Amino acid sequence: MEPGTKSLTDKLLDSQWVRLGFYLLLFLPLLLRREPTPTNELKYLQIADEALRDGHFWCLYLDGAPYADKPPLYLWIVMCFKRLLGFHCIPLLELFSLLPAFGILVIFNRWCGGRLPRRWLLAAESALLTTAYFLGAAVVLRMDMLMCLFITLAMWLFWRMDQGEQKPSLPWCFALAVFGAIFSKGPVGFLFPLLGCLVWLLAERRPRDFGRAWGWRTWLVLVVLCGIWWVSVYLEGGRDYIHNLLVHQTVGRAVDAFHHKRPVYWYLYVIWYAMGPWSLLTIPVGIRDAIRHRLRGLSRFFLLVSATFFVLMSLFSSKLQIYLLPLFGFVNYACFMILADREKEMPGDGRNLRRICYIVAGVMLAGVLVAGLFFPDIF
Question: CA-to-CA distance for 135 and 138, rounded, in angstroms?
Answer without folding.
Answer: 5
